[in-house]
Amino acid sequence: MTEPIVVDIARIAKRFSGHVAVEDLSLRVHRGAVYGLLGPNGAGKTTTIRMIMNITMPDEGSIELFGDSMGGRHHSARIGYLPEERGLYKRMRVRDMLVFLAEAKGVPRARATTKADEWLDRLGLGDWRLRKIEELSKGMSQKVQFIGCMLHEPELLILDEPFSGLDPINQQALKDTIVQLSRAGTTIIFSTHQMDVAEKICDHVCIIARGRKVLDGPLTEVKKVHGGTHVAVAFEDAADGAAAMLGISDLVAAADDSGVFAELKLREGGDPQQVLERLLRQGVRLRRFERIEPSLHRIFLDKAGPDAAEPERREVAHA
Amino acid sequence: MRKVWAIIRREFIERVRSKWFLISTILGPIFMIALGVLPSLLATRTGRVNQIVLVDQGTGGLAARVQAQLGRSGRFRVAILESDPEDGAAVAESLTVAVRVEEIDGFLLLSAAIIEAGSAEYRGRNVSSLRDMAVLESAVRQSVVIERLNRRGIDPAVVQEAQARIDLRTMRITKRGATGESGEATFILGYAVGLVLYMVILLYGINVMRSVLEEKQTRIIEVLVSSLRPFQLMMGKVVGVGSVGLFQFSIWTLVGYLMLRYRQVILGWFKVPAEAMNAVQMPSISTELMTMVIVYFLLGYLLYAALFAVVGASVNTDTEAQQAQQPVMMLLVAALVVSFGALGDPGGQLAVTASLIPLSSPVIMPVRVATSDVPSSQVALSLAILAGTVIVVIWGSARVYRIGILMYGKRPSMKELWRWARQS
Q: At what angle do helices B326-344 and B183-218 cross, to 10 degrees?
């Protein structure tokens, strides 16, 4: 990639009394990227983001933003930040709230007001601009907060769990906006544990587990490197699925079995053809049988799931 | 700077718009008008006249003397009932019935023994009226004294002269000479100054605490702290809330000034007659005192606001805040209590010491200035100590605040707070 690096994190560590939140974490985000910071709950995503934002300081390592180490607060006008735990001043009016947030980033008042109205209209909140925050529904106030973090047109947008708690319609609206901003050149870093969303919009992912990076790279490459033979199977009904899964269990290394749909990782050297043959012989009625790239979900489970922890635990025991 | 301005602006606008501000701003002047009008209004009220019966059980001329004395007070209408001491019980019984059916308010039993024994008895419905009883007692006492002196053969004219009413007028003397202000007015002024400063510093200090806590609870603090330094945030908030206080103060001062200036007109609205207007002296408020009040309010507010900001930053819930604010509030309450003592003796050891200690000086020094002449060297010293403390406390508070606002979970101990303050 030839784009300049916007965020450069080098070997940072953060410990809180008694436990390690982040350990030896390095990552780079290029300009214009949509960067997904993935990991289970408690993996250290929020801690990492807070360190980028200058809210807390790393115990070790360095963080560079826009090529210098002046810190997030210094560049605050160029950065938009949506914290994981959301909140707004309950008794403020919607538009006043947005204007205040933009002003705190240094945007002149008049301009902030125009932009606020523009975005409220765009996300369907135009009629609510003079209402108080406490009158909004949860989804609406999340949208307001999202508008608040990007009114000042930041070059870098950092969103901590932006999709959590949103209904599918609002999720779609948010996703569309993120794609739009990305097309306009905004660099976007967001954390999530919703793999399906990440898979659709990220071009770069980084999986963190237990405070450490376990995987990092462009999405296409991550999938290529992950290896293994993966098959997606869809059955007519759940009963068919249960019987089928039992019949082929000796050929499968790992399965993400959702009843009528399953994503299978075959044993080493396994042949999808053989699986299909076996299923047909059993008389299972199929709706779909496809050889696929591993889904991000599968990769996530392999890298950060409970099984992935096993070898590490063993290492510790030896040491 | 624009960012800090945004913080100040928000704190100011949101507060001035609130119902709470409107109510307290209106209540202030109503209170002041009441303070200006009520005493005059009360002075015009004559009160009801008590109908009583004086039972004369052979006291000679004493009963008539008491009757005349009570009549002069304007609060009693007295009828004399001569009775034989032997019928005492029966008379008392029938009069008790008269009191019960509200024919009379009470009756006074004067026996012949009163001159020697010095005791009389009053029974009535109005015994709880301290003022009526005081009038009654003084009338009986004076009459008895005259009667005793007469019996010793002292010329009644001499007695009359000796009994002439003595009126002690109190007047306050300041550097500029006698002010014509009564001692009472000075006391009320000092009392009001202390109370207002206490209330306003507490009110706005707690406002800062609530505001810090709100930002912490809603996590807006994370967004703010990623664009402003914690110190800028804290100061923006303190200045914003403080300007609301100053704004409210100005409104009150203006109303207070107009109230004193146009007191005659306002009293006219309440139909207070002219004599009653002049019967009650209003304290005059010098510009010196006004300046003192404002300067000490500002410094005292800064000091306590910084402390309350620390309280807000170190707790997570309203309940915790209620508890944690107690020690800070106690400091202010102590200052108020000492200021009442200072009213009685504004130049005394306690008052002077307390007006130099920075945690109590914002309340006590203005009280002293209102009630006495404070040497300017003492004022200067008090101000210097207070200003110095404000700087140190704000510096320390900002350091605790910076860490506290991002800390959730267990409430930190005093030891931890101290560690935060020293940690760089």
A: 170
Bridge partners (DSSP) listed for residue B111: B57
Is residue B20 less than 8 Å (CB to CB) from chain A? no
Please list every residue in chain B whose beta carbon sits closer than 8 Å to the beta carbon of residue A51: none
A→B contacts (Cβ < 8 Å), by residue, are 50, 53-56, 72-73, 76-77, 79, 81, 83, 85-92, 96, 100-101, 103-106, 108, 148-149
Measure in Å the smallest separation between the Cα of B350 and chain A Cα atoms.
45
Contact between B359 and B337 under an 8 Å Cβ cutoff? The reply is no
- Euclidean distance between CA atoms B365 and B367, whole angstroms: 5
ipTM at complex level? 0.78
- Please indicate if any CB of chain A lies within 8 Å of the CB of B353: no
Rounded CA separation A232/A293 (Å): 9
Q: Which of A14, A50, A52, A55 to mutate to test the interface with B (most CBs of B within 10 A)?
A: A55
Size of interface A-B (CB pairs under 8 A): 71
Q: How far is CA B61 from CA B21, B57, B65, B109, B151, in A?
A: 66, 11, 6, 14, 12
- Dist CA B399 CA B413 (whole Å): 15
Cβ atoms of residues B15 and B207 within 8 Å: yes
Contact status, residue B222 vs residue B406, Cβ threshold 8 Å: yes
B410 in contact with chain A, both atoms CB, cutoff 8 A = no
Q: Closest Cα partner for A205 from A188, A228, A185? A: A188
Domain spans of chain B?
A: 50-162, 180-423
Write down the residue that tokens 């009360």 correspond to: B42
Q: Which residues pair with A217 in a beta bridge?
A: A205
The reported pTM is 0.75
| B13 chain-A contacts, CB cut-off 8 A | 96
pLDDT per residue rounded down to tens, chain A (319 residues): 568 899 999 999 998 877 888 999 999 999 999 999 998 888 889 899 989 988 888 889 999 999 888 888 888 889 999 988 878 998 899 999 999 999 998 899 999 999 999 999 998 899 999 999 999 988 888 899 999 999 999 999 999 999 888 888 888 989 999 999 999 999 999 998 888 888 888 999 999 988 889 888 998 888 888 878 889 999 888 877 887 888 888 888 888 888 888 888 888 888 888 888 888 888 888 889 998 888 888 888 888 877 665 444 333 333 3
- Judge: A89–B218 Cβ closer than 8 Å, yes or no: yes
Of B193, B184, B206, B390, the residue nearest B298 (C-alpha): B390
Choices 2.60.40, 3.40.50, 3.40.190, 1.10.150: CATH for B50-162: 3.40.190
HEC assignment per residue over A105-171:
CCCCHHHHHHHHHHHHHHCCCHHHCCCEHHHCCHHHHHHHHHHHHHCCCCCEEEEECCCCCCCHHHH
Give the gap in angstroms from C-alpha A162 to the nearest C-alpha of chain B.
14
Phi, psi angle pair for B375, to nearest 5°: -55, 135
Shortest CA distance from B225: residue in chain A: A55
Buried b (16+ CB within 10 A) or exposed e, B205-221: bbbbbbbbbbbbbbbbb
